[in-house]
Amino acid sequence: MFILVNDVRIEVREGETILEAARRTGHEVPSLCYAGGGVRHKSSCMVCAVKNRVNGQILPSCSTFPVEGMQVETDSEEVRQVRSLSLELLLSDHRADCEAPCSMVCPKGLDVERMLGYYDGGLPGEACRVIADVFDLPETGCDTCKAPCEKACRRGTVDRAVSIRAIVKEVVAAVGTPPPPPAGERTAQREKEKNRYCSRLGRFSEKEKERLRESVSTASRCLHCACAGRDGCKLRRYATEWAVKRPRYDASSALPVMDRKHVTGNMWFEQAKCIRCGLCVYNSENGFTFKDRGFGMQVVLPEENRVNVKEDLAGLCPTGALYLQPVAETY
Fold it and tell me: What's the whole-model pTM score?
């Protein structure tokens, strides 16, 4: 069978979907709810949308099989608009901070949350190395800074902001001046981060504030609100590639934010970041499952099903909802 993809005639192999045939022949098609490699899935996100020029129909390419004579567009303006709309709808239901607000507003570019992570983990030497990446120790400049990091601190909306400047001084005083980091190592990373999409969490509800006050008792009092699964997040990747600065729609999710559930081993689940693609449901036997229907549908993990879930399932998640993080680093 032959079809046209972006006016290029290609032969379709038996059992291939439009997405698979297009990718195999060099036509890029994004996807969130499709993982490839024989992984079970069902179309849900519409980020892989394409258009059949023959009848004008918009199709989910990950689950649509070609028919003879089909003329597929994968990169037209109309297709890009459909994908962008689908992405923005998913982002509007996604409660998370990709990056910690404190780190984003530091005028020197200090990775505040990473530094506090080491501090809370009892690793002052590592915390000091993060500080030394942006400051000429023993001078830090924090004494004369107006502390935008503390003003932006999420903990400040719960009770009282983390004393970031005091912790920086404490770490430097305790450790001294560590060897300088490799030239440009973190600088290059920070430049890359400047152009990456960063979701905004919005306000905590009163119930969330109460839960966080009771449950977060790190040495620094930091909530560690940056997404632990952000590096492998396809949702963020596509938002960055398509230059989405902020979702067009207000956040609509009522799921509890920063509610981390331990699954097994080093795997964690945050329901508020889930886009309900179902990859974890369809590829775990008596593991994750759907609860309710329609707009209120949720992906949940019944307690009795926890033992059936394997860590490699985290690799299928297209967002930071299901991720791997050593238990010792969860503070």
Answer: 0.84
| Cβ atoms 4, 71 nearer than 8 A | yes
Q: What's the sign of the alpha-carbon dihedral 55, 58, 63, 69?
A: positive
Q: Is the CB of residue 310 less than 8 Å from the CB of residue 264?
A: yes
d(CA 12, CA 2): 6
Per-residue pLDDT tens, the chain, 331 aa: give them. Answer: 899 999 999 999 999 999 999 999 999 999 999 998 889 999 999 999 999 999 999 999 999 999 999 999 999 999 999 999 999 888 888 888 899 999 999 999 999 999 999 999 999 999 999 999 889 888 888 988 999 999 999 999 999 999 999 999 999 999 987 766 665 555 555 555 667 888 877 789 899 999 999 999 999 999 999 998 888 899 999 999 988 876 666 656 678 888 889 999 999 999 999 999 999 999 999 999 999 877 778 999 999 999 999 999 999 999 999 999 886 566 5
Whether the Cβ atoms of residue 114 and residue 121 lie closer than 8 Å to each other: no
Does residue 290 contact residue 269 with C-beta atoms inside 8 Å? no
* CA–CA dist 48, 44 (Å, integer): 10
User: Beta strand pairing status for 49-52 and 57-60?
Assistant: antiparallel
Distance between CA atoms of 83 and 47, rounded to whole angstroms?
Answer: 5
* CA–CA gap between residue 83 and residue 73 (Å, rounded): 13
